[in-house]
Amino acid sequence: MPRSARRKSKSDRPIWQRVLAVLLIAGIVVAGLLAGYLVYLDRLITQTFEGRRWSVPARVYAQPVELYPGRSLRPEDLVVELRRLGYRQSSARQSGTFVRSGNEVRIRARRFVFDDRVREETDFTVRFAGAVIIAMEEAGRKAHLARLDAPLIGSFFPSHGEDRLIVAPADTPKLLTDGLKVVEDRNFDRHRGFDLAAIARAAWVNLRSGDVQQGGSTLTQQLVKSYFLDNRRTVTRKLKELAMAVILESRFEKEDLLNAYINEIFLGQDGTRAVHGFGLGSQFYFNKPLTELDASEIALLIAVIRGPSYYNPFKHPERAKARRDRVLAQMAEFGAISEPDFRAATAKPLTVAAGSRRGGGYYPAFLDLLRAQLAAGYDADALASRGYRVFTTLEPWIQDAAESAVNTALTQIEKDRDLAAGELEAAVIVSRAQTGEVSAVVGGRRAGFQGFNRALAAKRPVGSVLKPVVYLSALETGRYNLATLVDDAPIVVPDVHSGPWTPSNFDEEPKGPVPLVRALGDSLNLATVRLGMAVGLEPIARRMGELLDLPPPNPYPSILLGSMDLAPLDLTRMYGVFASGGFSTSPKAVISVEDESGTALERYPIAVTQIAEPDTIALINHALMAVMLKGTGERSRWSGHGVAGKTGTSDEYRDSWFAGFDANYLSVIWVGYDDNRSTGLTGSTGALRVWDGLLATLYPTPLTLPEPYGTRIESVDYATGARADASCGEPVAIPIPYNVELPLKPGCGGTMERLTDRLRRWLND
Amino acid sequence: MVERLIDIKTLMLCATLVLAGCVSAPSYPPSQPTGSQQPPPIYTPPGTPPPATAQYPEAPPPGPAPVPAQPRPDPSVTLALREESLSAAARGDTAEAIALIERAIRIEPDRPELWIDLASLHLEEGDAVGAEQFARKALLYTRTRHDLEQQAYLIISRAQRER
């Protein structure tokens, strides 16, 4: 008591002053904390804003279609390609339009930045005669060559799923910015981040309707909200959002904020990919650039902002159209569009793009290969954020043909053979024969879905599809030619590991002495084993390793019949050596990567390495052509079209394989069940049917094989290896060394007597 | 009469020997460079007219094809790309020049001139290993074109020397 009295006497201040002082100090502390918090918010929002502006996933492009006189292409094929790029038939001569009239297609091509140059907007005229381009013009002048735009096929969006396609203010239609302001934020040009009038109006409208019809958030507030993806409706969150909006407004220009909004706002979900921004939104919903949208399309994009899944135009077209029309009405009411435009736009049905490939939809199997090849040079983070452009080897028309060939063939096979529908699986890789560039990858029957990629990852027993290496090794010794007889008779191979091995033929029947060309063509196991044992397991295993670019398999006798587990990608490498005349190439998916500014970061040039004599490869390819003419590939509808190939069937019909090529493209195809049960299919009743369907689109260019030095083309009886013509045998035209004399097939008579024989007789007279 | 017959026989034997000589020509170049002759410059410096190889004297067809061949690209197509590639190389932009030739190869993979161009460009870039491989690739398509065959062999010998 005395102490307090003393203190009281020391300070004569009344109690209210002391309270005030405490409050003042508390106020200063709170203000300090608040200021600190605001500084924190400021840094957070500014960094986020700046950071987002530059975080753009890498975009992936397929190969552009090349147009040139002499190319086989029908006008309707060109139209398909144009539609794939989102070009529309219209005589308006606007960017991204075309007109087809009979044998002529006139295109108003968009500006496009290729990996090597920029093409400004221009006119192309393409003239056809039947299924061939005969003449072209660019901007009224004769042209040799034209490229369509490179199709966008995907992007390396980050693991949180946000994908976007940045649009600059210059590429943003005025109607979009006007429409956004009208519908979402009428005071945008004036307010400082928040709009009390709008909040009050929204509250009133919502109160009256008993529903959330309007939000009072400004575009800036929505932008902030979108950055932090927080949908909790709490007062503190609202206040924080408000503070950040005010900070953003004080720090950045309105135009930057609007542009950020246009590139940021969430517009839809596509599997694991979240579609952000109007640039990607336009591609996703309409498959064309934002600059080409009409009023009804812009209105639809604005309409879905409010609820991308509720107003999803693919799933709820009526709901989406009603909201779109409401947006159009508001746009008309506030003068963003004219009354006639409003009427025309509301009369239009929804024009959303069909199909699963909207806006650079997916080729997931090909992208797997691409990702693997890019992994060496780029980390996932750089690909997801730096705005790179990746130019790839994919050819969408071939990819589509491969996917549809898989579906048609498998469905038909299941029907024909009474198999459970939808269970057979397949994998396909199509590549350019001379360069190894991969044109298509099908990883399974449901190709549009990310899933197990059988083309790259499924290692399965390959069977006879490996046999050509045995024959290559034999021919490389110089001791054999394609007509050399080898005995297809039972053989017992002493195997050091699992006791003696007695292979048998597919049909269990030994065929006796057969020429090499038939032993490979009919895929005779006994003859192949006999040949392989004569050549030696070590060199054959080594050669297999070299052609596959893998460690050589253990030299067990069973490798002669293909007891190796390989993926279609491995066989693509191996058959690439045959298809390219003896050169090894790495299946390649990337052409170049460039940075945001269009500067090439890296090119991936073509690389080839000769690993076999072209002459020996020509012999093998003659034999692989005989497979298609007389052997296990005989039933192919492309049998007489100058193609080469080999079938393969693993034990108990578990795997059906086919590898085939013409002068331009190599395809490797696997068909089987995921659970490894028997399919009952051989290579020719399974995988070959997929190839047959694929080639209907990828029409074959016949192989023109060189005649190896020191050989002549001889008409040889496929069954016996003797000389014969069509009147007395089943001849195949194959190169035979000059120093080898073939007997005449009995019954083939005088017409088959060779000129040299006659000459020799005459000289000896 | 008999004497004249023998004369013809002798002539034909000679002809056969000549043919055999052609036939035994090596399919592979010697692994070591032979002779000391300087290979001609592969790329013309800017300002000089393009080399004669930029013309396409059409080779005779390689015998009857089994089926009607597909239409071929008009020769002007890849020629145009080669000319662009030449000028890119003249500017010193070898990467661009290579990209243009690769584009042409996608259109016409069996045209030997393109592989020879690619080989020359890789050689110019210092990629002797690649240059040799592309020249070897060109040899797949030069059997009826001895001028090009010779060019390819020259690149191979230069590449082997530079390796």
How far apart lie the N and C ends of chain B?
Answer: 62 Å
Note the total helix count of chain B.
6
In percent, how much strand structure appears in the residues of chain B?
under 5%
Q: Quaternary state, please?
A: heterodimer
Instruction: Name the helicity range of chain B.
Output: 55-70%
Low-confidence stretches of chain A at least 5 residues in length (pLDDT < 50)? 1-6
Question: Helical proportion of chain A?
Answer: 25-40%
Rg of chain A, rounded, reads: 35 Å
User: What is the strand tally of chain B?
Assistant: 0
Mean pLDDT of chain A: 89
Structural class of chain B: mainly alpha
Number of strands of chain A: 31
* Largest interface chains and counts: A-B, 49 and 44 residues
What is the percentage of strand-forming residues of chain A? Answer: 15-25%
Which outline of chain B best applies? globular
List the helices and strands and how they pair.
The complex is a heterodimer of chains A (765) and B (163).
Chain A: H1 2-10, H2 15-53, E1 58-61, E2 66-67, H3 75-84, E3 88-89, E4 97-101, E5 104-109, E6 112-113, E7 118-119, E8 122-129, E9 132-138, E10 141-142, E11 146-147, E12 152-156, E13 162-164, H4 174-184, H5 196-209, H6 219-228, H7 235-251, H8 254-264, E14 266-270, E15 273-276, H9 277-286, H10 295-305, H11 317-333, H12 339-347, H13 364-374, H14 380-385, E16 389-392, H15 396-416, E17 425-432, E18 438-442, H16 454-457, E19 460-461, H17 468-476, E20 485-488, E21 512-515, H18 516-521, H19 525-535, H20 537-548, E22 565-566, H21 568-579, E23 583-584, E24 590-594, E25 600-603, E26 609-610, H22 614-629, E27 644-649, E28 655-661, E29 665-672, H23 687-697, E30 711-717, E31 731-737, H24 755-764
Parallel strand pairs in A: 1-16, 3-4, 13-15
Antiparallel strand pairs in A: 1-12, 2-11, 4-5, 5-8, 6-7, 8-9, 9-10, 14-15, 16-24, 17-18, 17-29, 19-22, 20-21, 23-26, 24-25, 27-28, 28-29, 30-31
Helix pairs in contact in A: 2-7, 4-10, 4-11, 6-7, 6-8, 8-9, 10-11, 11-12, 15-23, 17-19, 17-22, 20-21
Chain B: H1 2-23, H2 75-90, H3 94-107, H4 112-124, H5 128-139, H6 146-162
Helix pairs in contact in B: 2-3, 3-4, 4-5, 4-6, 5-6
